[in-house]
Amino acid sequence: MTPAPRTLELFYDVLSPYSWLGFEVLCRYKKLWNINLQLRPSLIAAIMKDSGNQPPALLPRKAQYLQNDIRLLGQHIQVPIQLPKDFFSVILEKGSLSAMRFLTAVNLEHPKMLEKVSRELWMRVWSRAAEKAGMSTEQAQGLLEKISTPKVKNELRDTTNAACKYGAFGLPVTVAHLDGQTHMLFGSDRMELLAHLLGEKWMGPVPPAINAKI
Amino acid sequence: MTPAPRTLELFYDVLSPYSWLGFEVLCRYKKLWNINLQLRPSLIAAIMKDSGSLSAMRFLTAVNLEHPKMLEKVSRELWMRVWSRDEDISEPKSILAAAEKAGMSTEQAQGLLEKISTPKVKNELRDTTNAACKYGAFGLPVTVAHLDGQTHMLFGSDRMELLAHLLGEKWMGPVPPAINAKI
């Protein structure tokens, strides 16, 4: 009898390129590991404010570093991520409130669509290729109308607060619930450690028997 | 004919626990990958403008100048003091203890300790730290890989799998087999 799957919560924001990397790796592994992956759309701006942290891109050398790091990791992890030329303004000025409220609404009403719609939004922000996620126009329109309702606003706020309670100072954050303990792991670069904690096998960011094409 | 080994520079400071993690992983892999690992004692204080490990890193700089084969072991002993046993590394006697534990004679260690305030050692540490800054470092550890005419600066102890990918080498986790993982 297989043991009960362990719950992993992935807190993410489409404004966060590293969140996309962590998301894709975990989506590949959810079919390979004995886990229950719960996607938790959150607001990175609120987490930064709550923790007193700042976006790394504000430090000039980190901004410079980020560009290469994201490019290399995108190649290694096989995610078509490309920093837009104005990524600074994308992150700092445009924000992601509507997008994350939209995903919150998707999660409330059509949770099975959450993975695909999240990916579509990342594609729009962080990749030149825009694909359709397969949602009907009516569905999408209906959800768009709901994003400013108290229910959706509160849900996004509650999810973001949950991340803060776990100790988040940024995103992505993966929370693993194991044998009565909770482990909060920050970053897309903690997946091998996660495997170690789960007692599962790490097969790199592009495990075999998975179609890596998004 | 095996291709020429690729040079990796590891910039580190014993005050940085993540530096220790990166250091141990690369020390394990230097016997498994076709690389030439160059250890570069640096000062995270200068990179981050923080409180520091000045004496310890000057001492390691002196070790690197005079007894480079001892650098790995002495570095490890300093990390063991500060990040494993919560012991001091700022006092001369602390640094001597680390050097002796690494296998240096008291005379050798004492001789190096007397040199840590010389211009040669000070300048060398400053130059190394400046080199890290020129590569774009904003913290430590930083691994700089020189590959096919390109330079890649990787920040953090958590970029070793990516490093393997860039080198075209096999990543076997942080504790690869056929290596005695006991420090």
UniProtKB/TrEMBL annotation, chain A:
Record has Nuclease as a keyword: no
Catalytic residue list: 16
Its EC number(s): 2.5.1.18
Top-level enzyme category: transferase
GO CC annotations on file: mitochondrion; peroxisome
Reaction(s) catalysed (UniProt annotation): RX + glutathione = an S-substituted glutathione + a halide anion + H(+)
Keyword field contains Transferase: yes
Ranges of residues in domain DSBA-like thioredoxin: 7-198
GO biological process, one term: glutathione metabolic process
GO MF entries: glutathione peroxidase activity; glutathione transferase activity
Family as reported in the entry's similarity comment: Belongs to the GST superfamily. Kappa family.
Protein name (record): Glutathione S-transferase kappa
Organism annotation: Panthera leo
From TrEMBL, chain B:
Active-site annotation: 16
GO molecular function (one): glutathione transferase activity
GO CC aspect terms: mitochondrion; peroxisome
Keyword hit for Transferase: yes
UniProt superkingdom: Eukaryota
Keyword terms, alphabetized: Transferase
EC number: 2.5.1.18
Annotated protein name in UniProt: Glutathione S-transferase kappa 1
Native source organism of the sequence: Panthera leo (Lion)
Protein's gene: GSTK1
